[in-house]
Write a structure and sequence with these properties.
Elements: E1 2-5, E2 9-12, E3 14-15, E4 21-22, H1 30-57, H2 64-74, H3 80-89, E5 95-99, H4 105-110, E6 115-120, H5 123-132, E7 138-140, E8 152-158, H6 166-179, E9 180-191, E10 196-199, E11 202-205, H7 209-216, E12 220-228, E13 236-243
Parallel strand pairs: 5-6, 5-8, 6-7, 8-9
Antiparallel strand pairs: 1-2, 3-4, 9-13, 10-11, 12-13
The structure holds S-adenosylmethionine.
């Protein structure tokens, strides 16, 4: 019987007396190397596709090791100078939601002035904070979709929204407008620049003042946009805007 399997196999096979298909020995390397290569190639390709998909769908901060690494890295730093800016615009005792609270260092600071609700899309960060603050008001929230029926006088984030794509950030700003009370204030900090990079699957989108302002100014009144130093002069910026 003449059989053709594309570049994997071609040649004449016979059927033995016991009904088994017998491939010709003299059919040459093409007929036995190619299927093996093909299987290895498909296996490798499946493996790579899985790896790549996992890398981009898994939340980096849903890995306890990454959470611990961040806690160690961030030890000793806080957003005090940012909170001091916010105080100029948002009166004390206001209800404020922090997005991407991480270890909760800024949430503790904010709680000295405001009624605070912490949030993150990593349950691990929320659990870690809950261990030391049983009564904390915490929400598991994605900063992009902000799926909550609650409303707030203020929304604060410190180095969180750069993990969203530009489109996702626009979506987030619109949702923030929905959940802010009239005259509500939003305060966010970002890395300054105009590029995007991925580190261990995590997105880092850098922004300029002009780009950020253009993304919010049709929905909010921009109150302040300024550069500051996180590690070195001008590596960061913050934006304060009010629900119009
Ligand atoms: C660089 S850490 C900053 C943590 C904290 N704001 C601080 O200043 O230490 C980024 C935080 O944002 C959270 N995060 C990342 N993407 C998020 C998203 N789409 N929604 C909510 N939180 C997110 C991470 O889980 C992490 O806690």
């Amino acid at each position: 019987m003449e059989v053709s399997g594309g570049w994997c196999f071609s040649g004449t096979v016979t059927v033995s007396e016991r009904g088994q298909i017998v491939f010709p020995v003299e059919s040459g390397p093409k007929n036995w190397i190619n299927p093996i290569i093909m299987i290895y190639f498909l296996d490798y390709w499946n493996f790579r596709v899985l790896q790549i998909t996992e890398r981009f769908t898994m939340n980096y901060y849903n890995d306890p090791n990454n959470v611990q690494d961040y806690i160690n890295l961030a030890e000793g730093s806080d957003g005090r100078e940012l909170v001091e800016v916010l105080i100029k615009y948002l009166p004390e005792a206001a209800a404020i939601l922090e997005l991407g609270m991480g270890p909760g260092v800024d949430l503790d600071l904010l709680s000295q002035y405001y009624r605070v609700t912490g949030s993150d899309n990593s349950q691990i960060f929320l659990d870690r904070y809950r261990e030391k603050n049983e009564a904390a008001d915490l929400l598991l929230l994605d900063a992009r979709t902000l799926q909550t029926s609650r409303s707030f006088d203020g929304i604060y984030s410190n180095k969180v929204l750069h993990h969203l794509s530009e489109e996702e950030l626009k979506e987030s700003f619109l949702r923030q407008k929905d959940i802010l009370l009239p005259q509500g204030i939003a305060f966010h900090s970002f890395w300054l620049g105009d590029r995007e990079e991925f580190i261990e699957g995590l997105r880092f989108r850098y922004y300029s003042e002009n780009l950020l302002i253009s993304m919010v100014d049709s929905h909010f009144e921009v109150l302040e946009a300024a550069q500051y130093a996180e590690f070195e002069a001008g590596d960061s910026l913050y934006l304060v805007h009010k629900k119009a």
